[in-house]
Queue: 4 jobs
Job 1
Amino acid sequence: MKKVVSLVLAVLLLATMTIGCTKEPAPKTTVRIGAIQGPTGIGMVHLMEADKNETATNDYEFTVSSVPQDIGTQLASGNLDIAAVPTNLASSLYQKTAGKVQLLAVNTLGVLYMLDNGNGINSIADLKGKTIYSTGEGANPEYILRYVLSKNGIDPDKDVTIEFLAENTELVAKMVKGDITLAMVPEPNVSAIISQNQAVKVALSMNTEWEAVAGANNKLMMGCVAVRKEFAEANKAAVDAFLAEYKASIEKAADVEATAALCESYGIIPKAPLAKKAIPNCQLTFVSGADMKAQIAGYYQVLFDANPKAIGGKLPDDAFYYAG
């Protein structure tokens, strides 16, 4: 009996010690993230799924919008902690907020393509004398087009006519109907147009044309993720965990079928079949740290030379780049 009592007491003591040593898991850091519909949001969908399945390191709260400026405003005002935005907007926010926004990583290279319906466009030289339709007046698309034309000896104000439309939906509709026969269009709208009008062809990749005149080391970096500096300083571990998980999410986009389905589920691209066609042409990437700073500097210089207002009035200094 004494042995039994001793054994029971030992078990109870061990149980008590175990309970006493057991700690509650550390609470996850809440990170509010803004994503934009289209290419810059595609790399986020696997992270969205991980958050839904509660397997992400942080507790992510996602906001998805079709308007980059809205996401940028929410980041600057403190309603978001991290946001996927155009690279020129990130620089503008940095200047506008006196350094309160930092660049975390580049997530998208060039997603612009010159679409042609019967104009016989095979090179930039063939654009001379033509009317080119586009969206993005006063933003990345306009400056990219002007730079590539100029570097190929074409005066964008005299040798071509550039007509800007306000919305990509309008551009898609007019190209599908044949009202427009030459346009510079971003994915996934390229795939949407071609799937509805077989006469439309991809004549030129603006990413390729950019590198041909700017050099392979001067990357066309159109999309990025930015962070509020105050949040990054107070939550370095959470930000670094996000970068690791975000990189993994972008890498998983190589599984086009699964990624396309998630794009539809999370409202990044309306329909999975369209996303499936567009994803291979969306130039997803992940560049951070010193590599990011070195590669994007040339692009910012081009934008600044075209119009200083495009990046907030001046080139961003070293403090703009998140070093980890």
Note: The CA atoms of residues 34 and 83 lie 4 Å apart.
Job 2
Amino acid sequence: MLPRVGSTMLCSLLEKTKVFGFPDEYLNPRGPMQMFASELHSSCFSDYWRKVTVSKATGNGVFSLKISYGDFHPLLNVSPLSQILPNARFIYLDRKDVLAQAISLQSAITSGVWHRDADGNLFRSISKAGPQYSRHALEMRIQELLLQKAQWESFFLIYNVEPLRIMYEDLEENISDTIRRCLDFIGVTSQVPVERIVPATSKLANEVNLAWYERFQSEHSL
């Protein structure tokens, strides 16, 4: 999954099915991995990975995680992927509007606000100053996001992986259909009432995002 394009919302929705594991950033070395390792009293990576894949699986044995390409790539240099993630299936969450994605990323980085729950309360976030607009920074974010997309596509091609492709815009438009597609993709047969599942997170984009969008476009008109 690509990070910061609605993956938190999608993961929270899938977790509510109670048959899709508890998807989280178990391999993110910038905080989450250390938090889970401490929780599980792990002595080394192999011990941590054994414990997390068991303790964070649902009763049907499904373990899931969300991961950026930067955090995923080191696994390819350690051992065969089939040993770390046996029978792995990939759900690739993308976004059509890369500029809007870059704006959301820049806003989160400069404000410290990455997630809000359904009531609007912050979680896994440390609010700093308000979001800071920067034309140069947004140009860099766009390049970073496009590079990540290319890296994932390269991995899929080289390793002959056919992921389930989901667009953030489609997720927003039809949550129930997206959940069904994910469940069907991993072969989970259940009577999950997907129509009743609602997001546990709040959308962060607001009028500031729109203002940045229009400003950036006006600054780059030919």
Note: Confidence is low (pLDDT under 50) at residues 1-5.
Job 3
Amino acid sequence: MSQIVIAKFGGTSVANSAAMNNSADVVLSNPDVKVVVLSASAGVTNLLVALAEGCNPDVRQEKIEQIRQIQYQILNTLPDSQVVRDEIDRLLENITTLSEAASLATSLALTDELVSHGELMSTLLFVELLRSRKVNAEWFDVRSVMKTSDRFGKAEPEVQTLSSLCQQHLQPRLADTLVITQGFIGSESKGRTTTLGRGGSDYTAALLGEALNAKRVDIWTDVPGIYTTDPRVVPNAKRIDEIGFEEAAEMATFGAKILHPATLIPAVRRSIPVFVGSSKEPTAGGTLVCNKTSQPPLFRALALRRKQTLLTLHSLNMLHARGFLAEIFNILASHNISVDLITTSEVSIALTLDTAGSSTNGSSLLTSALLTELSALCRVEVEEDLALVALIGNELAKARGVGKEVFGVLEPFNIRMISYGASSHNLCLLVPGDDAEHVVKTLHHNLFE
């Protein structure tokens, strides 16, 4: 294993000049950091996504002006940066041209091309800032190594190709320069820009960590680590100093915003620890996510995922029949839908779908075509605006008294669905969206405080 550390900074960590300088301090405080992966400056990606959806000339101009202001606020604090100024202006012109095209006809490929500009700009500015501080830093276009499928909005990286391209083009540069590159974006076989889906910058950092066999991946955000639940929901939430990969992956899968679910997979494959800390207070410590932790507790954390949809499918044909579930899952697969939780009875099946952040463009999963296909087989009921509360822990399926500890305090709430036993790491409850925070507070108070 090399001594390389990959450092990734999210949008708030490169939001403005002060935040970028903080992030630069964090990078320069560790000589092992050789590759820095950046998101777009906070707010820029949302503006670019809005432009990609097509808008009238006035709104378009206003949004492009907002992007220009965010980037120029940083640019204006840098000394004599004419080259970078020209580059930023060129990218802003690109954004204008592409958003005009989007107002005539939108496409996922066009969206990815447009959205990628956020990361291209933030990395250019960060390199310039480092150079103004006399650091030997180099801008690197991640698209030259991050080869992906052509599923725009949610492209899959080609891990073998990435590995060999990194050894060829990236590894040799690390001996004497600090490489700054983009998260979230890649390119497909024809060279068109792709994106890895929301939260993809963490994924990029872990993929590069795997390809370069790094000793650690540092994810710097605006929160100093992973907590027993979202501190905005429960102010008494406690930081977890060390957590196992499986627990962290469960937390991420069930909605803990701090890490993207897929992020950890490349790191797990190579047993590379992932550190999560705050770029605002780098000395405040953080959470280390590693292969195994000593004495993992029964209850580790609570995660909350909103905007869940419950599909209940009723059919008398299910009774003693074979192949009914296979048909249902074939239909869902043909629409690129993955199911979260599932419970069945003799004549019905209930499934939950995660409709939050399904792809970069946030399009809905429940299309009329899908519902029509399902309705041909069975009666379909749809319930929306539910929330999934997941209790993450260890050996939950083997422990005694878990039901009493959990359900005893949830007497006042309506629980729509329970999933327990399939994994020893989680117990999931589906509750009405309006009750979600109360449920989390009640459980946290009982299990963690």
Note: The two ends are 40 Å apart (CA to CA).
Job 4
Amino acid sequence: MIKRKKIFDVLNADDPTNCVLIKGWVRTRRDSKDFSFIELNDGSCLKNIQIIVDNTINNYGEISKLSTGSAVSVKGKVVESQGKGQRWEVRAETMDVISTAPESFPLQKKRHSDEYLRTIAHLRPRTNKYGAVFRIRSEVSYAVHRFFRNRGFSYIHTPVLTGSDCEGAGDLFRVTTLNLEAPPVAKGKIDYTKDFFGKEANLTVSGQLSAEMFALSLGDVYTFGPTFRAENSNTSRHVSEFWMIEPEMAFCDLEENISFAEALLKYMINHVKDNCGDDLNLFANFVDKTLDETLDNILSSDFERLQYIDAIDLLERSGKKFEYAPAFGNDLQTEHERYLTEKYFKKPVVIFNYPKDIKPFYMRLNDDNKTVAAMDVLVPRIGEIIGGSQREERLDMLEKRMDEMGLLKDNYWWYLDSRRFGSVPHSGFGLGFERFMMLVTGVSNIRDVIPFPRTPNNLDF
């Protein structure tokens, strides 16, 4: 029995293989007098492989009617290609038709708009662009796990369902089994003690709080999974379901945290450049002509480190008219972040020591009692790609911050307990996986780097 080969392996072989079995989908078919030439792709790489089918094959009549999108199984010899663009092609000995796509198949040999392809998200990975996007996404996911494993981190599976709000922003998706048409009521409010968990439950916005618990036991840990935010932002930078890489490190201060974030970002970019050459070239040639320059700039730069107060001062003195005027006490907008990275420093920038009033409760209060040990990593074209902090390890200060922000400490009793029993300085951050995918591909809309985007009024597929 002949083992099936991936097209990637066949095209990149040093020597031809006497006989191979390949299965895939027809991209195009053209006929000559005695042959059919079929371009076949199985998703393993950007390039198709050419199949030459002689009209003496028993089912040639069926093969000659194959259309784009049809699936076939081919057994044949690998020979040197007579055409340009590839080294090997397959001369078919047998071809079995697995399924036939109709002539109205939505993907034809032409360039389709991203907007149209989002309406057929179940088929868009068969296009060159999106096949490349999701192969890179897969490869980067592997790189993430490899990076942390090589540094002795433990991988933690944190809950998707939670009773806590990590960010304190309130943009949460509620999860309930109650009858919404006639929910139980107590004292004029919905009685969540009758719900499945006996309390309000939500989809998580971050695995950080849970990861902290394990960092204070196992040392260095990370979580990499889906997170959810019910923020009604219908922009090219926001989705409601997204993936986060969140390391948490015991005995780690803010400076070490920043250095680690820089190392992770550079590692992921290097891995893509080393392992996704053909796919990356597609984006450099057809999506963003400055992509290679942007990525090389990040890799070769020592990230600029700038306190928040100095960043605001720099922006105010820039002479540039921003849509949102920079001011102390306000968070930086994307236009501010891109000015700093693309115009002023022309490289990645780390902003740190933010005002405490614009940051969550868990960030460590600095000695000035006005700022917290928070940091954001900004990169050209994207803006913020990483956000993190040194965590508040002091129980009394943590309780004070929670009181200031109106958080019910009873809901976080377990989090507070971690500061009672062997608390240590620790830090961590979150890297938005889709933001990284936008950076490394040059794709400008976050909907186009995630398989099935979840946005306001969009829950298809």
Note: The chain has a mean pLDDT of 94.
